[in-house]
Amino acid sequence: MTTTTTTETTTTEATPTLDTTTKTLLRFATAGSVDDGKSTLVGRLLHDAKAILADQLAAVTATSRERGFLGGEFDFALLTDGLRAEREQGITIDVAYRYFATDRRSFILADCPGHVQYTRNMVTGASTADAVVVLIDARTGATEQTRRHLTVVSRLGIRHVIIAVNKIDLIDYDQAAIETVENDIKALADEIGLETPHLIPISALAGDNVATTSDSTPWYTGPALLELLETLPSADEDTADLEAFRLDVQTVLRPQGGLAPGLDPEEFRDYRAVAGQITAGRVSLGDEIEIHPAGLKTTVTGIDTASGPLETASAPLSVALRLADDVDTARGSVIAAAGTLPTPRRELRAEVFPFTAEGLRTGDRVLIKTGTTTVKGIVTIEAKRNLETSETEPAEVLAGNDIGLARVKLSAELPVPDFRDHGTAGAFVVIDPQTGNTLAAGIHTPEAAPSSESTEDQS
Fold it and tell me: What is any Pfam family matched here (predicted)?
């Protein structure tokens, strides 16, 4: 069954805006194999949220007509596939970010590529997501790319995974067939070690269970996809009161001729603050904090923002902290709640996702950037993941589309936590020191580290 859509009922003259001041914000990514309908789903979400301008909708309608979409129908995928090459091939080849809002929430959507060779882009899109929607064609079930995507989201520790079983209209909404696919997905999730995902049967083209629940699936009692996205807690909401405070220092602020908001001139003469983005938890006036690499403790006496001073602030707000003591800090320093900094280490044990065709190999000399700190490193590849069996195999080289395990020796000690417990603070990027190109992304997984870690210095 396919429904038709006309431009008369869906046009909007207002420019879509991202409202982050009065609504909670959810970052989510979409992923799926080629032809699973991912771009169509994203287009449907934008369409039903009335986030499409009238002229864009008219252009898509005209292009759809040229492609053979008749009778008022149009290709929802064209609402998201902005690159000309994508449109001509009918595939998504890069991460595209979309912004839209409903009455209940604002969203940042990362539309990730479907082809196997672009899995690295999927890592980029999903790495900062609160939730990931993975599409599966109800007619074919899980594919190699499904396993790859679920492995990636599992290794990245994405808190909320939604499996959208798409194109249910093409199998006549057959409950038994859909439940068979869902059972296979549950078994695959167990095999990979992924916590039970949300499962929603949908038709992106017809709109079944996308914005609202469908009369065609009376046996499905869960929420529609958009309803679920509107109610999932974001990472910031999940962890603001659970994770310890942490801030990576970007710069140290001193008077430069302008008056900081909320400060009187006398106080401003001696103004000094350390500025950066809060990456975890919250901080309040009077809190005791510790600083790496200074190794000193002090207390917070002021929290300044572009809008004025605050008594408390939480992730992901950017702030300038005034401290009780004149502690030596600079870009790359880490500030955390007293007693919570991980033990600094000179070796990381990590899951690695290469970004280039050349990949990574044992012995590569690289730069490691985590937070606002960049240090030299040497890579040792230990293993790569066999995505057909979910097992690891010994390896010394990781190709551009592999997922593997590596050890990285560092030229300086860094307080990098376990990614699974602290998200962003436990992640890093691998950079080519000659070209400055990003070679790979990594997530620190110390629970799998060798029994004794090297503390050798590097030249």
Answer: GTP_EFTU
> Where residue 110 sits, what CATH number does that domain have?
3.40.50.300
Residues 217 and 225 sit within 8 Å (Cβ to Cβ): no
In a domain, 270, yes or no: yes
User: 269 and 363, same structural domain?
Assistant: no
Query: What residues contact residue 238 under an 8 Å CB cut-off, 6+ apart?
Result: 130, 159
Which pair of structure tokens corresponds to residue 370?
């985590």
Summarize the confidence of residues 381-399 as an average pLDDT.
Answer: 86
CB of 346 closer than 8 Å to CB of 456: yes
Residues shown for the chain: 459
Share of the chain above pLDDT 90, in %: 44
Structural domain includes residue 459: no
- C-alpha span between 76 and 40 (Å, rounded): 5
CA angle at 38 for the pair 32 and 43, rounded to the nearest 5°: 160
Query: 29-50: per-residue pLDDT in tens?
Result: 888 877 777 778 888 888 787 7
User: How many alpha carbons fall within 13 Å on the CB side of residue 118?
Assistant: 19
Question: Which of 337, 360, 376 is the last residue in one of the domains?
Answer: 337
**Angle formed at CA 333 by CA 330 and CA 335, multiple of 5 degrees:** 120
333 and 349 together in one domain: no
Q: Round to whole Å and give the CA distance between 228 and 230.
A: 5
Asked whether residue 105 is domain-assigned, the answer is yes
Q: Which of 59, 151, 181, 167 is nearest to 403 (CA)?
A: 151
The continuous run of DSSP H or E covering 97 comes out as strand 96-101
Whether 350 and 317 share a structural domain:
no
Residue that is last in its domain, among 337, 367, 382: 337
Mean per-residue pLDDT, 263-268: 59
DSSP secondary structure letters along 49-62: TT-SBHHHHHHHHH
> Bridge-partner residues for 410, per DSSP?
377
Q: Hey, is 230 helix, strand or coil? A: helix
* Continuous segment of H or E residues that includes residue 191: helix 175-192
Query: pTM of this prediction?
Result: 0.74
Q: What's the domain count of the chain? A: 3
| Nearest CA among 189, 155, 160 for reference residue 352 | 155
- Shared-domain flag, residues 145 and 212: yes
CB–CB of 405/350 below 8 Å?
Answer: yes
